[in-house]
Protein backbone atom coordinates (compact mmCIF):
# COMPACT_ATOMS: atom_id res chain seq x y z
CA UNK A 1 0.00 0.00 0.00
CA UNK A 2 1.40 3.39 -1.02
CA UNK A 3 1.91 5.99 1.69
CA UNK A 4 0.30 9.41 1.39
CA UNK A 5 2.44 12.56 1.27
CA UNK A 6 2.29 13.28 5.00
CA UNK A 7 3.19 9.66 5.85
CA UNK A 8 6.12 9.76 3.41
CA UNK A 9 7.42 13.02 4.90
CA UNK A 10 7.14 11.84 8.48
CA UNK A 11 8.57 8.44 7.55
CA UNK A 12 11.60 9.80 5.74
CA UNK A 13 12.65 12.00 8.64
CA UNK A 14 11.87 9.26 11.17
CA UNK A 15 14.39 7.09 9.28
CA UNK A 16 17.04 9.78 9.78
CA UNK A 17 16.20 9.97 13.50
CA UNK A 18 16.15 6.20 14.13
CA UNK A 19 17.96 4.31 11.36
CA UNK A 20 14.98 1.97 10.90
CA UNK A 21 15.82 -0.25 7.87
CA UNK A 22 12.25 -1.61 7.49
CA UNK A 23 10.85 1.92 7.36
CA UNK A 24 13.56 2.89 4.86
CA UNK A 25 12.48 0.06 2.57
CA UNK A 26 8.83 1.19 2.83
CA UNK A 27 9.47 4.91 2.21
CA UNK A 28 12.51 5.22 -0.08
CA UNK A 29 12.61 3.96 -3.68
CA UNK A 30 15.55 1.83 -4.80
CA UNK A 31 16.62 4.57 -7.26
CA UNK A 32 16.26 7.47 -4.81
CA UNK A 33 18.81 10.26 -5.34
CA UNK A 34 19.79 12.53 -2.44
CA UNK A 35 21.21 15.79 -3.78
CA UNK A 36 22.32 16.74 -0.27
CA UNK A 37 24.77 13.83 -0.12
CA UNK A 38 27.39 16.09 -1.75
CA UNK A 39 28.54 17.25 1.72
CA UNK A 40 28.08 13.88 3.44
CA UNK A 41 30.18 10.71 3.66
CA UNK A 42 30.36 8.79 0.36
CA UNK A 43 27.89 6.09 1.50
CA UNK A 44 25.17 8.74 1.76
CA UNK A 45 25.24 9.03 -2.06
CA UNK A 46 24.29 5.37 -2.51
CA UNK A 47 20.91 5.31 -4.30
CA UNK A 48 17.89 4.04 -2.45
CA UNK A 49 17.21 3.21 1.19
CA UNK A 50 20.87 2.39 1.92
CA UNK A 51 21.96 5.97 1.26
CA UNK A 52 19.17 7.28 3.48
CA UNK A 53 20.27 4.99 6.31
CA UNK A 54 23.86 6.20 5.85
CA UNK A 55 22.69 9.83 6.01
CA UNK A 56 20.86 9.19 9.25
CA UNK A 57 23.90 7.51 10.82
CA UNK A 58 26.08 10.47 9.80
CA UNK A 59 23.72 13.00 11.39
CA UNK A 60 23.17 10.94 14.55
CA UNK A 61 26.93 10.50 14.98
CA UNK A 62 27.25 14.28 15.34
CA UNK A 63 23.97 15.18 17.03
CA UNK A 64 22.69 13.12 19.92
CA UNK A 65 18.96 13.15 20.49
CA UNK A 66 18.49 14.13 16.83
CA UNK A 67 14.93 15.31 16.25
CA UNK A 68 13.36 16.38 12.97
CA UNK A 69 9.83 17.51 13.87
CA UNK A 70 7.76 18.18 10.77
CA UNK A 71 6.03 21.57 10.88
CA UNK A 72 4.14 21.36 7.60
CA UNK A 73 3.64 19.27 4.49
CA UNK A 74 2.28 20.34 1.10
CA UNK A 75 2.45 18.78 -2.30
CA UNK A 76 0.98 17.69 -5.58
CA UNK A 77 0.85 14.30 -7.27
CA UNK A 78 4.60 13.88 -7.61
CA UNK A 79 6.24 16.36 -5.21
CA UNK A 80 6.11 16.95 -1.47
CA UNK A 81 7.40 20.02 0.32
CA UNK A 82 8.29 19.56 3.97
CA UNK A 83 9.05 22.28 6.49
CA UNK A 84 10.78 21.02 9.63
CA UNK A 85 13.24 21.80 12.38
CA UNK A 86 16.52 19.98 12.95
CA UNK A 87 17.27 19.76 16.65
CA UNK A 88 19.84 17.98 18.79
CA UNK A 89 22.99 18.33 20.86
CA UNK A 90 26.38 18.43 19.14
CA UNK A 91 28.15 15.60 20.99
CA UNK A 92 30.20 14.02 18.19
CA UNK A 93 32.37 15.46 15.44
CA UNK A 94 30.30 17.02 12.67
CA UNK A 95 32.28 16.11 9.58
CA UNK A 96 31.42 17.64 6.24
CA UNK A 97 32.82 16.25 3.01
CA UNK A 98 33.53 17.54 -0.48
CA UNK A 99 33.99 15.09 -3.33
CA UNK A 100 34.09 12.24 -0.81
CA UNK A 101 36.94 13.77 1.19
CA UNK A 102 37.21 15.65 4.45
CA UNK A 103 36.21 19.28 4.03
CA UNK A 104 35.56 20.38 7.60
CA UNK A 105 35.45 18.66 10.99
CA UNK A 106 33.79 20.50 13.84
CA UNK A 107 34.81 18.95 17.16
CA UNK A 108 31.94 18.32 19.60
CA UNK A 109 30.83 21.52 21.31
CA UNK A 110 28.02 20.19 23.50
CA UNK A 111 25.84 22.97 22.11
CA UNK A 112 22.20 22.61 21.13
CA UNK A 113 21.14 23.17 17.53
CA UNK A 114 17.67 24.17 16.40
CA UNK A 115 17.37 25.22 12.76
CA UNK A 116 14.57 25.36 10.24
CA UNK A 117 14.77 23.56 6.90
CA UNK A 118 12.62 23.03 3.82
CA UNK A 119 12.89 19.74 1.92
CA UNK A 120 11.60 18.91 -1.54
CA UNK A 121 10.78 15.26 -2.18
CA UNK A 122 9.98 13.86 -5.60
CA UNK A 123 7.57 10.95 -5.31
CA UNK A 124 6.77 8.06 -7.62
CA UNK A 125 4.43 5.16 -6.86
CA UNK A 126 4.22 6.11 -3.18
CA UNK A 127 7.96 6.31 -2.49
CA UNK A 128 10.60 9.03 -2.35
CA UNK A 129 12.75 9.06 -5.52
CA UNK A 130 14.64 12.36 -5.05
CA UNK A 131 15.50 14.63 -2.14
CA UNK A 132 16.91 18.13 -1.93
CA UNK A 133 16.85 20.73 0.83
CA UNK A 134 17.04 24.39 1.63
CA UNK A 135 18.81 24.47 4.97
CA UNK A 136 19.79 27.31 7.24
CA UNK A 137 23.39 26.14 7.62
CA UNK A 138 24.62 29.62 8.59
CA UNK A 139 22.37 29.63 11.67
CA UNK A 140 23.46 26.09 12.56
CA UNK A 141 27.14 26.99 12.19
CA UNK A 142 26.50 30.06 14.34
CA UNK A 143 24.90 27.89 17.01
CA UNK A 144 28.03 25.69 16.93
CA UNK A 145 30.34 28.71 17.24
CA UNK A 146 31.84 28.22 13.77
CA UNK A 147 30.36 31.22 11.93
CA UNK A 148 31.31 33.80 12.89
CA UNK A 149 34.15 31.83 14.42
CA UNK A 150 34.30 31.73 18.20
CA UNK A 151 38.02 31.76 19.08
CA UNK A 152 37.81 28.57 21.16
CA UNK A 153 35.98 26.66 18.42
CA UNK A 154 38.34 27.92 15.70
CA UNK A 155 41.38 26.85 17.74
CA UNK A 156 39.91 23.40 18.40
CA UNK A 157 39.14 22.94 14.70
CA UNK A 158 42.69 23.97 13.79
CA UNK A 159 44.18 21.66 16.44
CA UNK A 160 42.05 18.78 15.14
CA UNK A 161 43.21 19.43 11.56
CA UNK A 162 46.90 19.77 12.51
CA UNK A 163 46.93 16.69 14.78
CA UNK A 164 45.22 14.45 12.23
CA UNK A 165 42.22 14.04 14.50
CA UNK A 166 39.94 15.56 11.83
CA UNK A 167 41.13 12.99 9.28
CA UNK A 168 40.55 10.16 11.76
CA UNK A 169 37.08 11.52 12.58
CA UNK A 170 36.25 11.65 8.86
CA UNK A 171 37.34 8.02 8.42
CA UNK A 172 35.29 6.92 11.46
CA UNK A 173 32.18 8.79 10.31
CA UNK A 174 32.54 7.46 6.75
CA UNK A 175 32.80 3.89 8.12
CA UNK A 176 29.79 4.41 10.38
CA UNK A 177 27.73 5.65 7.41
CA UNK A 178 28.88 2.73 5.23
CA UNK A 179 28.01 0.25 7.99
CA UNK A 180 24.53 1.79 8.28
CA UNK A 181 24.05 1.47 4.52
CA UNK A 182 24.89 -2.22 4.81
CA UNK A 183 22.25 -2.80 7.54
CA UNK A 184 19.54 -2.80 4.88
CA UNK A 185 21.28 -5.57 2.98
CA UNK A 186 21.90 -7.52 6.19
CA UNK A 187 18.29 -7.16 7.41
CA UNK A 188 17.02 -8.22 3.96
CA UNK A 189 19.20 -11.35 4.10
CA UNK A 190 17.94 -12.18 7.61
CA UNK A 191 14.30 -11.79 6.52
CA UNK A 192 14.92 -13.97 3.44
CA UNK A 193 16.62 -16.69 5.51
CA UNK A 194 13.59 -17.05 7.84
User: Could you give the order of the helices and strands?
Assistant: HHEHEEEEEEEHHH
Structural class: alpha+beta
Terminal Cα span: 23 Å
Annotation field: number of helices: 6
Beta-strand fraction estimate: 25-35%
Mean pLDDT: 93
Helix content: 40-55%
The count of strands amounts to 8
Structural Rg: 17 Å
Morphology call = globular
The poorly predicted ranges are 189-194
Largest sheet: 6 strands, mixed
Write a structural description:
The chain is an alpha+beta fold and 194 residues long. Helices cover 43% and strands 32% of the residues. The protein has 6 helices and 8 strands, in the order H-H-E-H-E-E-E-E-E-E-E-H-H-H. A hairpin with a 3-residue loop joins strand 3 (70-75) and strand 4 (79-90). Helix 1 packs across helix 3, helix 2 (21-27) crosses helix 3 and helix 3 crosses helix 6. The longest helix is centred in the last third of the chain and has 29 residues, at 165-193. The model is unreliable at 189-194 (pLDDT under 50).
Annotation keywords:
194 residues, 6 helices, 8 strands, alpha+beta, disordered C terminus, two-stranded antiparallel sheet, globular, 6-stranded mixed sheet, 43% helix
Topology:
Elements: H1 5-18, H2 21-27, E1 28-34, H3 49-62, E2 63-67, E3 70-75, E4 79-90, E5 94-98, E6 101-106, E7 112-124, E8 127-135, H4 137-143, H5 151-163, H6 165-193
Parallel strand pairs: 1-8
Antiparallel strand pairs: 2-4, 3-4, 4-7, 5-6, 7-8
Helix pairs in contact: 1-2, 1-3, 2-3, 3-6
Amino acid sequence: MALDHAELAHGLFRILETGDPALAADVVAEDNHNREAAVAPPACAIPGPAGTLASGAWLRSAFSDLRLPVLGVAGNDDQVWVRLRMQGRHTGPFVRFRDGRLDQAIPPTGREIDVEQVHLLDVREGKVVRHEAIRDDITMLGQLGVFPPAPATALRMLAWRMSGRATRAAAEVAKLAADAARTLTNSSRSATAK
